[in-house]
Amino acid sequence: MPRRTSLWFLDRKKIGFREDEVAITGEDELLVETLYSGISHGTERLIYRGEVAEGLQLDAALTHFEGAFPFPVKYGYSNVGTIKETGTGVTQFHNGDRVFAFVPHETAYVIRESEAIPLPGGVEPLYGVFIPSLETAVNAVLDSAIKLGETVVVFGQGVVGLFITQLMRRAGAGTIVTVDALASRRRLSLEFGADYALEPATADLARTVQEQTNGVGADLIVEASGSPRALDAALPLAAFQAQILVVSWYGTKRVTLNLGEEFHRKRLSLKSSQVSFVDPALSPRWNKQRRMALVLGLLGELNQQVLRNATRMVAFEEAASAYAVIDAHPEEALQVVLSYV
Questions:
Q1: CA angle 220-180-248, nearest 5°?
Q2: Which of 284, 288, 252 is nearest to 61 (CA)?
Q3: DSSP characters for 106-121?
């Protein structure tokens, strides 16, 4: 019976590996051998640091997690691999097909046929690891209900924030202002469609946004930085009855907001965008399948050369060093990918 090695978060800033057997047991199952898996710099950094509340339930939509928060836990949700074996009832896939799956970091895994997402033709397998981030960005744009010509401010230009910037431009944004503490990410955001890329600690954000909107302010603000301070900084930028869309997950980090001034008088809306669900208001037309079809169609249109240059490859067995980089030196890589080849 084949064996696999899986990555586990064992304790705060401690990564380990466990081995077990893996084999097809159902006629609708696939055995997949991993090529690449992408690390979530937001969620997985929180787990690595131990900044997840004890007893928090694992995402029920992702069924391949094991363990319990905070530790030990087998986690991860961006895996690209090659099918090595198919069950007798599988009809849509064959050995050798490249697929994406929402499974943790491990050398091999078994999934149901319905869980496998075929990579679009012409797209390198490496870029499949961006599917979850792109899906999160698409969901944010759907949640935002952006209108043609509106001014959008996006806090955070990690992978998700960059995709949001690119998609907001496609969705009809008039002016896009991005905010990020890292100069390398600000430069990338301009390549992905931003008109202005500002540093939060030194830029007069409110004045800049006011100047670019004739004193109106931002119609839509997206918080995708993972920093609680960014949410409070967003309030003065907002136009009357503007929406602030929170894509970030803060874990155990507390958010302190000044709601006594801008929030109350401007009648601002604060809304969460979470990718496990599609906005119920869109349910007559949209579901997860339609959203994923859009994501796969967009995957081949990404600025792949920019992404490749900003991606850091780390061998799976050296994963501990990958998390150390994400934790202490996020400026060194926009996306860290574990390689199994």
A1: 60
A2: 288
A3: BSEEEEEGGG-EEPPT
How far is C-alpha 239 from the geometric centre of its chain's CA atoms? 27
Cα–Cα distance for residue pair 145/163, rounded to 1 Å: 16
Selection from 225, 280, 229 nearest residue 247 by Cα: 225
Cα 238 to Cα 247: distance, rounded to the nearest angstrom: 17
What tokens were used for 45?
A: 């950094």
- Give pLDDT tens digits for 232-287: 999 999 999 999 999 999 999 999 999 988 899 999 999 999 999 999 999 999 99
Cβ 128 vs Cβ 119: under 8 Å: yes
For 250-286, letters b (16+ CB in 10 Å) and e give bbeeeeeeeeeebbeebebebeebebeebeeeeeeeb
Residue in 89, 222, 90, 218 with CA at minimum distance from that of residue 157 = 222
Region at 116 (left for phi over 0; alpha for psi -120 to 50; beta for the rest): beta
- Among 223, 218, 239, 200, which residue's Cα sits nearest to residue 271? 223
The one-letter amino acid code at 225 reads S
| Residues 50-75: tens digit of each pLDDT | 999 988 887 877 889 999 999 999 99
Tokens representing 27?
């006629």
**Cα–Cα distance measured from residue 222 to residue 230, given in angstroms and rounded to the nearest whole number:** 10
Two structure tokens written together for 139: 């969901």
